Amino acid sequence: MTPTRAGVALLLVGIICLIVVALRAEKVRVETRIQAHTAEIVHCRRQVWSLQMEIARLRSPEKIQQRIERFSLTVGADFDRWLSPDTDEALASLEE
Questions:
Q1: How many domains does the structure of the chain reveal?
Q2: Domain assignment present for 42
Q3: Higher pLDDT residue, 43 or 71?
Q4: Domain range for 44
Q5: Distance from chain centroid for Cα 65
Q6: N or C: which end of the chain has fewer CB within 10 A?
Q7: What pLDDT, in 10s, does the model give residues 63-78?
Q8: DSSP one-letter code for 60
Q9: C-alpha span between 24 and 30 (Å, rounded)
């Protein structure tokens, strides 16, 4: 092998090694970003779950009744109908 061919072969091997190193470094950066996004997704899902639990807790009829009593609000006679799951009947009674 001539010195020129050996130099070209060595240059090609060096370039290939640099490309491999650059690709591996980019892979590590991408994996780090993926981990960060995955952690953020887990945090958001936990936050959504806790907010859904808070909404469910606040929607419970007992909590509504307690808040009415705490703030001394006046309630009409058909309040119990609004606490029932069937709100269509309550809406129909208001239209009468």
A1: 1
A2: yes
A3: 43
A4: 37-66
A5: 32
A6: C
A7: 777 777 787 766 555 5
A8: S
A9: 10
